């Protein structure tokens, strides 16, 4: 019981030590990059901006009649 | 007796060190917290109108749908159910192309391999199908475009990387203290990391090669049911039984957004992001799918259709469609 507590505590400390060493960036920088990523990809994001024409939507309903 | 005393001292010393490390970590994060998300989001145009409509209903399972995944061909869907079956659907035609019956009822997880030629499933059935037997959520794993490995998250609180061919365990991931509910691989080809969400309320980022947890995020007040990488690979979205979805930024090492409304009181079971990362789709126990603006933190749409809990949800690989699965036994495709 005691051993397992020591073990758990030691693991926790080791984990925290590892996390203390990671490189972090300012939130303003990482948020700006997320914003840039969204702007760069939003035109391809059909769920966000829709389809340029319904024909390019692979899940559109098939027309029930066709022009002959 | 002496031994016991020193053990106690040892524990106390470790506890003190843990405490001081936690304070140091909080300080570090606070120092970098130089902007609020709402200020950043003000630079974006509001989302005008989400025109996502129900397009297909996939009927065939006899019990709750528990998990689903899109094929890389953007057309087929694999789903697994409490009826013990895994079904491969043609989502264009709604035809069932294959049905696989497992020696169990709860097929709680399923996933396509990167090639689209194999599917993996996880069940509650132990031992016999050892390769995928202990899984809670499975997902074929790195290296990308390889079907050689499968990554699993388990009810025994561990994650594991397996060799598909030999069934051998390649790496074990210890750290969670309760069931792992969901895992997701980082999208980047170079990133050998994955994320896990657990009933211990925590979200961990793991290094696949070393087997070590490299980052952890706390904040959720109940089970974390679903985790998904942001398409940029620099953040993860989560859904929890605490009725919130959240966004954690890996580089700033902190929670940056919480998606919640007073009227939403039911847990979120499944989350996914649109391919730009602007939209977060979340399936809830109140049968709805909420669509959130990830940066403005506002709900922009509500998708009704399912007649029971929404248990799984996936944006198609090219971002054109959303599939949802429910305890009402159906899957639906929205586009």
Automatic annotation (TrEMBL), chain A:
GO terms classed as biological process: signal transduction
Pfam families on file: G-gamma (PF00631)
Coiled coil regions, renumbered to chain: 6-44
Stated family: Belongs to the G protein gamma family.
Organism: Trichogramma kaykai
Keyword Coiled coil applies: yes
Protein name from the UniProt record: G protein gamma domain-containing protein
Assigned keywords, A-Z: Cell membrane, Coiled coil, Lipoprotein, Membrane, Methylation, Prenylation, Transducer
Alphabetical list of Gene3D superfamilies matching this protein: Transducin (heterotrimeric G protein), gamma chain
InterPro entries in alphabetical order: G-protein_gamma, G-protein_gamma-like_dom, GGL_sf
Lineage: Eukaryota, Metazoa, Ecdysozoa, Arthropoda, Hexapoda
From TrEMBL, chain B:
SMART domains (UniProt xref): WD40
Name of the protein in question: Uncharacterized protein
Chain positions covered by the region annotation Disordered: 132-151
Chain segments annotated as coiled-coil in the UniProt record: 11-38
Pfam families, A to Z: WD40_Gbeta
CDD domains recorded: WD40
Family per record: Belongs to the WD repeat G protein beta family.
WD repeats: 58-99, 150-172, 173-216, 217-258, 303-335
Organism: Trichogramma brassicae
Keywords recorded for this protein, A-Z: Coiled coil, Repeat, Transducer, WD repeat
InterPro entries per UniProt: G-protein_beta_1-5 (IPR016346), WD40/YVTN_repeat-like_dom_sf (IPR015943), WD40_G-protein_beta-like (IPR001632), WD40_PAC1 (IPR020472), WD40_repeat_dom_sf (IPR036322), WD40_rpt (IPR001680)
Upper lineage: Eukaryota, Metazoa, Ecdysozoa, Arthropoda, Hexapoda
One Gene Ontology biological process: signal transduction
